[in-house]
Amino acid sequence: MSNAAYKEMWEKLDLDVPAHDALLEVLGKFYGDIYMSQQGRLQGAEYLDFVLSEVHGLRIKEIQDAKAQGRKVVGSFCVFVPEELTLAADAVHVGLCAGADAGKEAAERIVPRNTCALIKSFVGFKLAKICPFTESCDMIVGETTCDGKKKAYEAFGEYVNMYVMEVPQCKNASDRDLFKSEILRYKAELETLTGKTIGVEELKRGIGIVNAKRKALQRLTALRAADPAPISGRDALLINQISFYDDPVRFTAKINELCDEIEKRIATGEGVAPKGTPRLMLAGCPMAVPNWKLPYVIESAGAVIVGEESCIGTRNTRDLVDEEAVAKATTMDELVDALTDRYMRIDCACFTPNDERLDNVTALARDVKAQGVIHYSLLFCQPYAHETFKVDKALAAAGVPMLAIETDYGMEDVEQLKTRVQAFIETLE
Amino acid sequence: MGGERSAGIDIGSRSIELVLLEDGEMVVSRRLPTTFDPLRQCRTLLSGQRISRMAATGYGRELAAGLAGELGLPVTVERITEIKAHALGAYARFPQARTVLDIGGQDTKAIALSGGGKALKFEMNDRCAAGTGKFLEYTAGVFQIPVEEFGNYALEGDEAPVINSMCTVFAETEATSLMARGVKPQNIALGLHDAIVKRTVNMLNRVGLAFPLVFAGGVANNPCVRELLAKALSAAPGEELLTPPDPDMNGALGAALWAARQD
Ligand code: SF4
Ligand code: SF4
Q: In A, which residues are within 8 Å of B118 by CB distance?
């Protein structure tokens, strides 16, 4: 990464350049240890390496260029914020979920200590001025999911142009109505922000782009059912992470190319780990860049991860906006209905009840042929910690063993995690 | 020359144990404190021993990888987790065992066993030494009593005050304030033991406790913990609650048994 060339841009974005340099250094080293050390990676992984090495460079430059052409940039923290609409308004949509401990002390000045690491991280990134994506945003969209985020947005809103969507807690007809009205309110907000009108054609285009992206990711998920596993869990997670900030059209093309390569690999019986390597699936909280700790621990313990049931994984990619309904639609109302239906299917632990998640976890474990599931919840995340018990029960009923891990971004528990994960793998042998 | 000799080494955070098996018989059983130079301690334990197979377990198991080469032993060191080692060790001693409890220097594990001595499910305490050997060692220090005698001392108590905190540091604070209130020190000691047992019972229940339960690890030497545990579980000692004669060697024994299985 040629940092010097980007320095001016970072200064213009008012980043704390020395602190940002330190972050990039840690990120680079972490990436080297966890990613570049892998054997038998796909050629298509070069794209991943490139995007990651340029995550704060070229991609930010592209975003600045888009801004110079009058396009707006919208950031979000949750898969409930419909990217389709953002794209329909010709704005850039970036996922801001943050996966590093940086800025923690600063964050703890405005959110309680017992807040999950994800929230502390996005707050910390802003306060420490080290995230060029956050600094590029014209508007940041929050949502009323968990209490931690809801309240953190109030504090965060003092520093950024914040807009909050209301996500319901249940899935009754009235909740659907509420979310539909929230989608319409977000549409109006985008129109005000961008000065553009979102018409049927624009929204169809937005839906088309995002559906194509989700389809590419679905294709990847399906290919991972092969034994030997054709791609490491770390690389697959990285792909899901990159899907939140790279240009969606380029991303889709690249991931489809990568899937072509994977198909060839499967045909020749090649894999990243020998046939018979223990296959594990992750389920639970999202893992944002560069939170690769647990996947690294798991794959260094001799297992391979074959699926991620999380928002940076299948919770984001499993459902498409109904293509038939979209093709037939002639009015905005019909399109918004199709969007609403798709988003109301998200099985986030913030809902009650949320039994469809139990079915989805067991179905994914079966589809990707996982021998065991590691349920991951971030320390202080109430919704997923609660669901740990239910998921354990549902998986046990389906004959799939589960290990529950609760951790955060710190490194001090790596040795304990290794022992637990290795012991779990031993029980599967 | 005797038969095949299998070594199991358990590199824990407080102590290191070595067990050598020859034709299934335990011929060596030794332990040393871990210190700040665990590798040196391993070398001391292993030097001069004739070994045909070897397996390492415990927190420091990865350390042992290079050890064989360094000591000129013609073996590759297998590595297994403490969970597996304890399951194997307990099963070898008590084939009827269904649950294993290991309270070691710095962690506690509860393991549910399948019929064949395989670990099915386990729980470990996370991140801190609450309710482990270290906790007893530390609190015994507050009473200025050697940890080996702490259990018998606590058994002199007749009424255990409730100690709410499981954190080593806070438990000390609680114990000191109880002392200041004039509570009999033996009773406070009993309360501290009781606190460990309560926590342990919760962990055992989470893995689905089934009897017989094998109690291993250094803390199994403590008569007060054994007695309170039997009481809390209403388990008959010697039948439902089993303690091997050398409970701290259970992990090393399991590793040695694993080594013996390799070709
Ligand atoms: S877990 Fe729930 S709140 Fe978090 S990103 Fe996913 S949908 Fe949103
Ligand atoms: S991980 Fe849990 S606590 Fe953190 S933001 Fe997501 S739902 Fe909220």
A: 427
Q: How far is CA A382 from the centre of its chain?
A: 19
> CATH assignment of B95-243?
3.30.420.40
pLDDT in tens, B140-152: 988 889 999 999 9
Q: Domain B5-82+250-261, what architecture? A: 2-Layer Sandwich (3.30)
Distances (CA, A) of B230 to A201, A381, B223, B249: 73, 36, 11, 22
Q: What is the pLDDT of residues B52-103, one digit of tens each?
A: 899 999 989 988 888 888 877 888 899 999 999 999 999 999 999 999 999 9
Nearest Cα residue to atom 7 of ligand 1:
A348
Which residue out of A78, A347, A357 has the highest number of ligand 1 atoms within 8 Å of its CB and is therefore the one to mutate? A78
| Structural domains of chain A, ranges and CATH numbers in brackets | 206-319+349-428 (3.40.50.11900)
pLDDT, tens digit (0-9, with 9 covering 90-100), for A66-108:
999 999 999 999 999 999 999 999 999 999 978 998 889 999 9
**Cα B74 from chain centroid (whole Å):** 30
Q: Which residue of A has its CA nearest to B58?
A: A419
Give domain limits for chain B.
5-82+250-261, 95-243
Per-residue DSSP letters for A210-239? HHHHHHHHHHHHHHTTSSS-SS-HHHHHHH
- Give how far Cα B237 sits from Cα of B74, B204, B216, B245, Å: 43, 17, 14, 13
Residue A146 CA: nearest ligand 1 atom is: 3
Shortest CA gap B117–chain A (Å) = 11
Site residues for ligand 1, CB cut-off 6 Å: A 78-80, 145-146, 286, 311, 346, 348, 350
pLDDT band at A1 (very low <50, low <70, confident <90, very high): very low
Cβ contacts of A412 on chain B, cutoff 8 Å: 127
Give helix then strand counts, H and E, for chain B.
Answer: 9, 10
Residue of chain B whose Cα is closest to the Cα of A419: B81
Q: DSSP label at B128?
A: S
- Are the C-beta atoms of residues A12 and A89 closer than 8 Å to each other? no
Give yes or no on whether B5-82+250-261 and B95-243 have one common fold. Answer: yes
The predicted model scores a pTM of 0.92
Q: Test A423 with B121 for CB contact under 8 angstroms.
A: no
* Letter string b/e over residues B249-263, b meaning 16 or more CB atoms within 10 A of that residue's CB: bbbbbbbbbbbbeee
Contact list in B for residue A413 (CB cut-off 8 A) is: 126-127
pLDDT value of residue B125: 81
Q: How far is residue A412 from each of residues A94, A170, A417, B130, measured CA to CA in Å?
A: 31, 38, 10, 17
CA B262 to centroid of chain Cα atoms: 25
pLDDT digits 0-9 by tens, B162-209: 887 777 777 788 888 888 888 899 999 999 999 889 989 999 999 999
Question: Given this model, what pLDDT does residue B128 score?
Answer: 66
Minimal CA separation from B144 to chain A, in Å: 31
